[in-house]
TrEMBL record:
UniProt keyword annotations, A-Z: Chaperone, Cytoplasm, Nucleus, RNA-binding
The keyword Cytoplasm appears for this protein: yes
One function term, GO molecular function aspect: RNA binding
Biased composition (Basic and acidic residues): 12-25
Keyword Cytoplasm in record: yes
Underlying gene: Dnajc17
GO-annotated biological processes: spliceosomal complex disassembly
Protein localization: Cytoplasm; Nucleus
UniProt-recorded name of the protein: DJC17 protein
InterPro entries recorded: DNAJC17_RRM, Nucleotide-bd_a/b_plait_sf, Pre-mRNA-splicing_ERAD, RBD_domain_sf, RRM_dom
Record-linked Gene3D superfamilies: 3.30.70.330
Organism: Calcarius ornatus
Pfam families xrefs: RRM_1
């Protein structure tokens, strides 16, 4: 009986030791798993922090780059506006300075059918022969679109005046000559100029001023739209960061 009890006690002790060993192994295993989870969590957190920091740095970089680009764009716009102002001012001064130096130009008209290959009897050589007796002809342009029409530019006002007053052209196809540009105010011809021709220079000046103002406003609007786009991108980046 005593021997049997010793065997049973030995088995119980062995079983208890095995159970304790299993519990230790289980605890060690759980500890390892917990440490691994903690390490993984810490690693994930560090990775998230790193990604967040990278995103923040990228946003800052883009914002700075956008600001630099916007500043450069605004600088270029200002520079272009300045240059255009100077060109506009120079052009205005040149136009004002050239008002008294306009060479006299006359408009020539005669009857001519489109299918008439002879041009109604008026070729460039014929017109030059007719007109050069009044003085030097600087330019002569026969219209290719409107038949029976040409423009002549004389070197002197006197030559142009004589041509307007005296020239009739070919007897079988007379010329109609009128002032186009450079008519002297003190000696108006019998052919009255178009009533709309006098304020033409002032109208052109007004149109030029309006075009210039429109250009300036367009450049400023483009710069403002670019600034709005940059701000919108920044807001979207910040909203995306807050959601994550």
């Amino acid at each position: 009986q005593a021997a049997y009890d010793r065997v049973r006690r030995a088995k119980k002790e062995a079983a208890a030791r095995t159970q304790k060993l299993d519990e230790k192994r289980k605890k060690v295993k759980l500890d390892l798993e917990a440490r691994e989870r903690e390490a993984q969590s810490q690693e994930n957190e560090e990775e998230e922090i790193r990604i967040t920091r990278s995103l923040e740095e990228e946003i800052i970089r883009l914002r700075e780059e956008g600001s630099r680009q916007l500043e450069e764009q605004q600088r270029l716009v200002r520079e272009q506006i300045r240059l255009e102002r100077e060109q506009h001012s120079r052009g205005k001064q040149e136009r004002n300075g050239a008002e008294g130096k306009i060479t006299p130009k006359l408009k020539l008209r005669w009857k001519c059918r489109k299918e008439d290959e002879t041009g109604g009897g008026y070729s460039k050589d014929v017109l030059l022969q007719i007109l050069q007796k009044y003085g030097d002809v600087l330019n002569l342009l026969i219209s290719s679109r409107k038949t029976g029409s040409a423009v002549v530019e004389f070197a002197t006002v006197k030559a142009a005046e004589m041509a307007v007053k005296n020239e009739v052209g070919l007897l079988n196809n007379p010329l109609k000559i009128s002032w186009l540009e450079g008519q002297p105010q003190s000696h108006p011809s019998t052919v009255l100029p178009d009533s709309t021709s006098q304020p033409r220079s002032s109208q052109a000046s007004v149109v030029s001023e309006r075009d210039y103002e429109s250009l300036v406003m367009m450049r400023m609007r483009q710069a403002a739209e670019r600034q709005q786009l940059i701000e919108q991108l920044q807001r979207e980046d910040e909203e995306e960061k807050s959601h994550t």
